[in-house]
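Structural prep section.
Before we set up the soaks we want a predicted structure of the protein with PXG in place, mainly to decide which crystallisation condition to try first. Input record follows.
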Amino acid sequence: MNAQVHPLPSNTELDAFWMPFTANRQFKSGPRLLARAQGMHYWTADGREIMDGVAGLWCVNAGHGRREITEAVTRQLGTMEFAPTFQMGHPIAFELANRLSELAPSSLDRIFFTNSGSESVDTALKIALAYHRAKGAGQRTRFIGREKGYHGVGFGGTSVGGMVNNRKAFASAMLPGVDHLQHTLNIEHNAFSRGLPQWGAHLANELERLIALHDASTIAAVIVEPISGSGGVLLPPVGYLKRLREICDKNDILLIFDEVITGFGRVGKPFASLAFDVTPDLMTTAKGLTNGAIPMGAVFAHRKIYDACMQAPEGTIELFHGYTYSAHPVACAAALATLDIYKKEGLLTRAASLSPQWEDALHTLRGLPHVIDIRNYGLIGAVELEPRAGKPGARAFEVFVKCFEQGIMVRQTGDTIAMSPPLIIEPKQIARLLETLSSVIRQVA
Ligand code: PXG
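Run finished without errors. Recording the tokens verbatim:
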């Protein structure tokens, strides 16, 4: 398995692939090519071993090259490679929905399948609108997102998201009637907090201001990531999410948690909503659902939402939404095999037992040159570097490149170095990951 290593393409062969979220020209002049993976590691096309500090892109939670997933996928491809789920179904899709509903926070037991996090987000936004309309409140059309939020790249997700670079080129195409809460990153008050920051629960009260401005009767839903990843690993201050929940409840506004990166064990519980004891009305997931092996996403909806939509006259389609590949049988097989691994190896709670060591190892970087904050929760970590004058992101990019050269894969977003290793990581590997990062940070001016 995994034995085939493709030869390194010559530089001209790199032209045809327009790479996503990548500085294409810079990359193609010095490519970092990954050729195979197993366990905690990737190997580059020229044979170097790289420890995976980000679980691919926050998705390979059970580590690479899991035989059980490969076998399940192969079996399913041999049995039935595709079957539609519009006006018909296949058993494995129902089996997966049932398994997911058992893992989910209470009452979030109606599952809509998608193929990615972006599709999960756009699906959840549409379900929120459909729900209010079914309840006779079709005027509730606004969404409230948050600054620095990342909800994928569909027009809906981009609109409720709050990352300026992701929005500015598409400004004219943003959904109307979207407003944003302030983000919760505050280095002045919360630098080097261990776990959730103590300061900042009051930032949730801004939702009351937006409600007063727009009137609750126009607002369909609030969407936030319990912990944001792409925006730079932003943690919710203690009490913040509960406060959002209370305000939404008081105003009949749906609360959507985007758990695309926090889902499936990343924070020491199956979902962040369980870790923080705040239950949303809709929850978006993807990534860890299939261990990244086959694209798949899932939206978990509260039963009350499903039930409200089921009031349509018998025989009518209740929700005019879905994807050709919703509940793709091969993705379902990958997801079921992944859930089996998570269960057998206790991976959905393993981050909780590793997180004290993770936290200690991360915070040994405090005091290194240019390190202005360190943030952590579960098996998520971030090291914030002071930006170089006039060159935002340049210092962290250099750290990322040097890390890759020195055998560890981390993520750079702005001047943040983010890490989210596979949940199978061993204590010795945590130490090595942070020792290498520490040594690289010392090398970068
Ligand atoms: N919501 C959240 C919270 C995400 O983190 C998406 C939606 C979109 O998922 P798809 O599957 O459509 O990409 C994401 C994706 C990073 C990084 O470096 C994070 C994501 C994607 C790529 C990079 O932090 N998250």
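Observations: The mean pLDDT is 96.
Flagged for discussion at group meeting.
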